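Chapter review. Work through the record for ATP-binding protein before attempting the end-of-chapter questions.
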Amino acid sequence: MAANNNSGVIATGAGPTIDARSLHLPAQMVRPPNEVVASPGLNNLPAPRNGVFVGRDEDLARLDAAMDNGSGRAVVRVVHGLGGVGKSTLALEYAHRFRHRYNPIWWIAADTAEGIVAELAELAVRLDPIAAIGA
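Structure tokens for ATP-binding protein:
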């Protein structure tokens, strides 16, 4: 699946390998987002669970309440604050602690628009559209 001219992995150096693939699906074969089923446990969390994470119970509870909209639909929430206060650590702990509730869990660093597009493209590939066609 191509997104923003990114259609695969390109390796450089001595003896490079190029894996460039594009998948073009007819519109009638593309499922609405609420019908796409992710493989169990699909995630790209950037780090394992922090074994020494302590405290922040109130912050985790507030985040948990914000994530539960009761609709069964995807929820997007933003944790914001000054640099270095532990926003990413809090979000990562939440993702690990409650990973049994969500599938997929996809971590997107929003530093650049290009990075967001690349992460969403990777998610689209990992959702395996070819398998979804046969389902």
